[in-house]
Design brief:
The complex is a heterodimer. Chain A has helices spanning 2-15, 19-38, 50-77, 80-86, 91-115, 122-149, 153-174, 178-184, 196-200, 202-227. Chain A is mainly alpha-helical. Chain A has one domain (2-227). By secondary structure, chain B is an alpha/beta fold. Chain B is 35% helix and 25% strand. Chain B is globular and about 50 Å long. Chain B has helices spanning 40-47, 82-93, 98-106, 122-134, 152-167, 179-185, 203-209, 219-227, and strands at 2-11, 14-24, 29-33, 55-60, 67-70, 140-144, 171-176, 188-193, 196-201. The chains are: A mainly alpha, B alpha/beta. The interface between A and B is medium-sized, with 23 and 24 residues.
């Protein structure tokens, strides 16, 4: 537990000094706040709370993947991870520390988003928050997988951003095209629960998200066993 | 304390270490002297269990928790300050916070405790890396090129710290391609060339054996005699 806690604290100290990462946790809720206060969504023909749900999806789908992958890749590239391992930190402890920290960050930002859903009843806010949490776990797994397979931080940023854009922006693009929507239905970012229809099919959406997490966890374990963290 | 016997290591078809044999006694400074690409870092990686040998044995008579490591790449967290870097490892080792400041004092960095690592000079980073390596008072310390790319004054400071550790009965295993450093620091050393130990013993004995005692012991001459190549 010492090691997991130490990595968690290290990451919390580092994030405030790493503006590139920090901004990704601030920019989406700030833009959402600005948009909902300057644009009347309903009169523009959009769904109520369109901006909040869309930017929350982008945050969970994009920011977490790119930041987690970049942090792990940086620790590997700069050999910091090697020294942690030499000090007795196990790979799973390192990943728990990093993953745990970013999950806490995701919870805080997701709570911020749900507080902006002015017209939603509390139960629906909590359901949306819960689905964002599941999505965050999936995105952290994505980030860890990318962080393990790339050679350096630059490659992690390139691949993490690409996967993040697909996961984060896919649901927005899907609103314009039925075919894309059908394809994206299998991904967790298309299954966040905030619409009336989504509540009626809540089991279906939860199952898809859980399946996403299960598949990512299997891939993660396979790569982790095959390559390890430092190879 | 450290025993290496008939050690061999291959990277693909290439043999990078061949029939390596030596012993390091408790509390001594042992140097591995050789040019870049001789296999020094590979040997340290095997001794610190980051690599597996293909044959032979490499035994260090302490647990990995009782070893300290300083590599050419320092692995420090650049955005964290000196104290935060040490406190991270202090927490992992389960040590009180005060130990981190103590370690910084030992390497003369107490005034720079709150400075971000990315703002430190190369020499200061080396000293911080050494502070991290000795934070938990290891019984065996591995130093890979501890003074490479350092100015003479900073190198001298690192040498003094290594002598302090020897006085505290720490066993030090270091690699270097600096002959003066090897003569000055090491109780015993091994000369390594293309993955083979070509000579070993006490620095002065080695030089005397090869009539390389001029005004100062000349390990460079020994190396050329043994390998036909200049170490640098």
């Amino acid at each position: 537990m010492n090691s997991v806690g130490a990595i968690f604290i290290k990451q919390s100290q580092d994030i405030f000094k790493n503006k590139g990462v920090l901004i990704q946790f601030i920019i989406f809720p700030v833009i959402a706040f600005l948009m909902i206060n300057v644009v009347d969504e309903v009169s523009m023909g959009m769904d109520d709370n369109y901006f909040v749900t869309m930017f929350a999806t982008m945050f969970v789908g994009m920011s977490l993947i790119s930041t987690v992958s970049a942090v792990i890749a940086e620790d590997r590239e700069k050999k910091s991870l090697r020294f942690l391992m030499m000090a007795g930190v196990k790979s799973h402890q390192y990943l728990l520390g990093i993953g745990g920290f970013f999950l806490v960050c995701a919870i805080i930002v997701s709570i911020l988003f749900t507080t902006m859903m002015y017209n939603f009843p509390i139960i629906e806010k909590l359901t949306f928050l819960g689905s964002l949490m599941l999505g965050s776990v999936a995105s952290i797994l994505w980030g860890a997988i990318i962080g393990m397979i790339v050679k350096n931080e630059q490659a992690a940023i390139s691949l993490g951003t690409t996967v993040g854009m697909i996961m984060g922006f896919g649901p927005m693009v899907a609103t314009f095209n039925e075919t894309i929507a059908n394809v994206f239905r299998i991904f967790y970012t298309m299954n966040f629960i905030y619409t009336e229809e989504a509540f009626q099919a809540i089991i279906n959406h939860l199952s898809i998200m859980m399946l996403n997490i299960a598949v990512l966890a299997v891939v993660f374990v396979w790569i982790y066993r095959k390559r390890g963290l430092t190879s | 304390m450290i025993e290496v016997k008939n050690l061999e290591k291959y990277f693909g078809d290439q043999r990078v270490l061949e029939d390596i044999n030596f012993k390091v006694e408790k509390g001594e400074i042992f140097g591995l002297l050789g040019p870049s690409g001789a296999g020094k870092t590979t040997l340290i990686n095997i001794l610190t269990k980051q690599l597996e040998p293909d044959s032979g044995k490499a035994e260090v008579g302490v647990t990995s928790f009782e070893t300290g490591l300083m590599l050419d790449e320092d692995g420090l967290y650049p955005r964290l300050n000196c104290l935060e870097n040490l406190e991270l490892f202090g927490k992992i080792y389960g040590m009180p916070k005060s130990k981190s400041m103590e370690a910084l004092k030992n390497v003369g960095l107490e005034q720079d405790a709150k400075k971000a690592v990315e703002s430190l000079s190369k020499g200061m980073r080396q000293r911080l890396a050494l502070a991290r390596a000795i934070l938990h008072t290891p019984k065996v310390l591995f130093l890979d090129e501890p003074t490479s790319a350092l100015d003479p004054k900073t190198a001298q400071e690192i040498h003094e710290l290594i002598f302090q550790l020897k006085n505290q009965k720490t066993t030090v295993f270091l690699t270097t391609h600096n002959m003066d450093e090897a003569v000055k620091l090491c109780d015993h050393l091994a000369l390594i060339h293309k993955g083979r130990v070509v000579e070993q013993g006490m620095p002065l004995d080695i030089c005397e054996r090869h009539q390389a005692m001029r005004t100062i012991p000349d390990l460079g001459a020994v190396f050329i005699k043994m390998t036909g190549e200049d170490i640098s």
